[in-house]
Write the structure tokens for this entry.
Amino acid sequence: MKRHSLLCRWMFAVIAGTLVGNSLAVAHADEAALRRLLHGPDRCDHVIPMLLRHGVNNESSPATAMNTFHPYGPIAIPAAELGDLELISITRHADAAAGCGPSFDLVIKNCSTRDVCGPHVTLVGLLGRIRPTSPNVTTKLESIPAGQAIQVTATLPIQSLAMGNLNGQAIAMNQVLVVLDSFDQFLESNEANNLRLYDAATIPVAATAVIEPTVTTETTTPDQATNASQPVAEPASPSDSGLGLSSPDLRSAIDQFTDGNTAG
């Protein structure tokens, strides 16, 4: 009886685990489509609490150390171990692809002694106040090496070019909000510098490389150049070319022929 009960429990656990695993697999596969079906386009709710806590374009003096709590007592973490993510620059692409919004190049630096893996960066296009449905894009960075900077390209949805209406004319966004570590996953020595707000008109345009047409030139050797520039004169007679009889020899032969005819 006891053995039968253990067998039933084992079979129930296997069946339950299989059902849960299948449901999780389906949910994971349809996560993106289901989120858009239930909530609409990608939202920027996750950056609003950071705005309320830190504001924009602010700086805070990095602490020399940070105290945290542990079951065995408080622990002081040096600021160098915490590190910081910093936005170095932002530039805008000159041309936008068909059906897409504006693209931006972001240069992000990892000011720490350790690699940072998996941070998120969010761009939000604004016309007035921020809303959960404001056009935005979130990009996940695979890794930023310690002490180095990387460049990432983010493209806003095309809705950022038509956020308002003025007498029948579409009005594009006038501000861009950039949020580093937008899901607030990493503990940093300076959290306030993760939020930067820019006027769209003041963002510089990235320089595009101009490809100049190449001109091919033919080079000639000195002998070829001399032959091409100076025509060769043809000899007027065999004597001028140095072949056959010279002029005195020819005259002597003619005189001998004349004297012979006269004597005969």
Remarks:
- DSSP finds six helices and 13 strands in the chain.
